[in-house]
Design brief:
- By secondary structure, the protein is an all-alpha fold.
- The chain is built from seven helices and no strands.
- It starts with a helix and ends with a helix.
Length: about 150
């Protein structure tokens, strides 16, 4: 399964858990999800920006993504930690990538990724950004809003 699909499955599961009210985020979890999402957006930008960068910069940005996720993971527990751990696991192939040829000697098991692999990883990060925004979003229980409040937009 490719990175994009793994992240999509994680996002679907997170949305379902929120919808089923199995995952009730604390304000601190929401704040961390938003902080993580913003950190990822700072690192991996839109396709037009990323694809114009040299491969070494693209790899640098993807590695920074892993750092953002690892730092966030270290600051939480429970379902958000499980979600972040799954995201790190999905992006694990990036850890084996290198951007420079191995002129002499070994490369410690690293490989040169293809342009499609860069695109796949960056697309996965963008999907992860969107998923974290959804996770952090406040949901309003309309059943608890009184008709007067609803009509007045309160």
């Amino acid at each position: 399964m490719d990175m994009r699909r793994i992240i999509a499955v994680l996002a679907e599961e997170a949305e379902q858990q929120k919808q089923d009210q199995a995952w009730k985020l604390e304000p601190s979890d929401r704040a961390l999800a938003l902080e993580t999402e913003a950190g990822l957006r700072d690192v991996v930008g839109p396709p037009t920006v990323q694809e114009g960068l040299p491969q070494i910069k693209r790899l640098e940005h993807l590695r920074e993504t892993l750092a953002v996720l690892a730092i966030s993971l270290s600051r939480t527990h429970g379902r958000l930690a499980w979600f972040l751990s799954g995201a790190l696991n999905a992006l694990e192939p990036v850890l084996r990538w290198r951007a420079m040829p191995a002129d002499r000697g070994g490369s410690f098991g690293t490989v040169l990724p293809s342009p499609e692999e860069y695109k796949e990883a960056e697309d996965a990060v963008r999907r992860l950004q969107d998923a974290l925004a959804v996770i952090a979003a406040e949901t309003i229980d309309l059943g608890s809003v009184r008709p007067n409040q609803e009509a007045n937009g309160v």
